[in-house]
Each structure stands twice: as structure tokens, then as C-alpha cells.
Design goal:
There is one protein chain. 33% of the residues lie in helices and 23% in strands. With 193 residues, the protein is α/β, with parallel strands linked by helices. The protein has a single domain, classed as Maf protein, CATH 3.90.950. The longest helix is centred in the N-terminal third of the chain and has 16 residues. The termini are close together. Belongs to the HAM1 NTPase family. It catalyses: dITP + H2O = dIMP + diphosphate + H(+); XTP + H2O = XMP + diphosphate + H(+); ITP + H2O = IMP + diphosphate + H(+). It comes from Pontimonas salivibrio.
């Protein structure tokens, strides 16, 4: 079965394909047909549904999407839904640099990633939220992953998410947990399709 993944982020699409294939080997994840919609929701759930709805309207096919970001306790939950656009450039390295600058001298570095995975199809909508808890490192480490992975140390780990293998990260990350759960729900929803 083919699902549209409403994201132009090739890193995310590759992660989601690998995550969902572990639960649903026959699923084929393809990119969106239209331009990305404006993500003007106030929550991760609202933004995930905005993308999934737009993808479904553009393609007519069942569409999945996610909205994710990092929330830092000492910054009142920022960057939150603005994680991808935290710095003026929106580039990963600039976002990470601004986050570290804003945490300069801060000892409470607790944070968590949030991912809301969404499905929109002709039968309705499904959303699943998962979180991944940890702390923010003092400096980036590792060359894997993307986004804030080089500065996020998951609880119980000594290394950043960017130092994990893709397989290990997909098994435990916010996105991994959300899309594993969504894949399980979709297998039941589409059994026999």
C-alpha cells in the first residue's frame, strides 16, 4: 500500500519509511504532490493535521504527516512548534547555535522532543503524540541525524542522538515511537487493502 508523506524534508521521509517498514513491510512512502501549506497552528497536532489534510486534498491518497520539535524547560518550552524556524535562517546549525546561546550559563538543561504523527484519509483522521526526554549538551557532538540531534542527550545515555545509529534512534526517538504506533494502527485500519 502507498501512503503520501506530506513533507519535503528528505531526512524525515527516509526515517519514516524505515520506521514504518519495521511494522508494515509492504508500505511504500512517497513524497507530496503540492506545495507545503502554511503551518499556522498553535500546537504540534494542529500543524501535523494541516500538512496531512493538504497532502490528502492534493493527492486523493491516504496521507501521513508529522509535526515535531524540541521543548526546553528553562526556555518555557521554546523553541517548541517554532523549532524548524527558531533562528532567522532556519538552518539546522543556526537553530542549534541560537539554542545553545540562549542556554548559556543555564544549569537546568532538561528538554524533550515531541512528535505528532497524523493520518488523513477518506475515513477520517488519526493523530498520535510521543515524547523523547533528555537534556541539552553544552556543544554539538556527532555527525548523524539532523536538526537538534547533535545537542540532545537522551535520558539514560551518555551520547547525543547524533551519535546513535539510525536504527537505534528510530527505535526509541519521538518520531520512531509515534510512527511505530501509527503504523500499527494503520495495519489494522487497512488490513486486506
Amino acid at each position: 500500500m502507498q501512503l503520501v508523506f506530506a513533507s519535503h524534508n528528505a531526512h524525515k521521509r527516509g526515517e519514516v519509511q524505515a520506521i514504518m517498514a519495521d511494522v508494515w513491510p509492504s508500505v511504500d512512502i512517497v513524497g507530496p504532490k503540492g506545495d507545503p501549506p502554511e503551518e499556522d497552528g498553535d500546537t504540534f497536532t494542529e500543524n501535523a493535521l494541516i500538512k496531512a489534510r493538504a497532502g490528502f486534498i492534493d493527492s486523493g491518497q491516504p496521507t501521513i504527516a508529522d509535526d515535531s520539535g524540541i521543548c526546553v524547560d528553562a526556555l518555557g518550552g521554546a523553541p517548541g512548534i517554532h523549532s524548524a524556524r527558531y533562528s532567522p535562517s532556519g538552518e539546522d546549525t543556526d537553530n542549534v547555535s541560537l539554542l545553545l546561546e540562549n542556554l548559556n550559563g543555564v544549569t537546568d538543561r532538561r528538554a524533550y522532543f515531541v512528535c505528532v504523527a497524523a493520518l488523513v484519509d477518506g475515513d477520517g483522521e488519526v493523530t498520535i503524540e510521543r515524547r523523547w526526554y533528555g537534556t541539552i549538551a553544552d556543544a554539538p557532538h556527532g555527525g548523524g541525524g539532523f536538526g537538534y540531534d547533535p545537542v540532545f542527550i537522551p535520558d539514560g545515555q551518555e551520547h547525543t542522538a547524533a551519535e546513535m545509529t539510525a536504527e537505534d534512534k528510530n527505535r526509541v526517538s519521538h518520531r520512531g515511537q509515534a510512527f511505530q504506533a501509527l503504523a500499527g494502527a494503520l495495519v489494522e485500519r487497512y488490513q486486506g487493502v
